[in-house]
Amino acid sequence: MTRLLMLPLLLLGFAASAQTAPTTAPRLGLGKPTTIPLYIEALSMKPNPMYVVDGQIVDSSALSTISPDQIKSVSIIKPQAAAASFGPRVRNGTVMITNKPVKTGR
Q: Tens digits of per-residue pLDDT, 23-62?
């Protein structure tokens, strides 16, 4: 066979062994799909601080249960100062909320 006639056969061989890869994993050459690690937390446009309400660490969903009338003060602590108090897991600072004392009795 001539080389020109063998080309389609070679291409069929490549097509038979072709692998599909998700669009998030680009292929570079004929090797394995390349994975590119994405550090989404570092690239996030909305950094999430740690929330502390009356000394208790809470997640942001717990903030919706607090009435604005209950809040005595709100403090924003930068990451370096927050790391001294709460350890290295605080990357984006801390929001500290102190509630007013609950009145009991009369």
A: 555 555 555 555 555 555 555 556 789 999 999 999 888 8
* Angle of CA points 80, 86, 100, to nearest 5°: 105
The backbone torsions φ and ψ at residue 76, rounded to the nearest 5 degrees and listed phi first, read: -105, 125
**Contact of 73 with 99, CB cutoff 8 Å:** no
The predicted model scores a pTM of 0.53
CA angle 42, 83, 58 (to 5 degrees): 80
Question: How many residues in total does the chain contain?
Answer: 106
Q: Where are the domains of the chain?
A: 3-99
The rounded distance, in Å, linking the Cα atoms of 53 and 95 is: 8
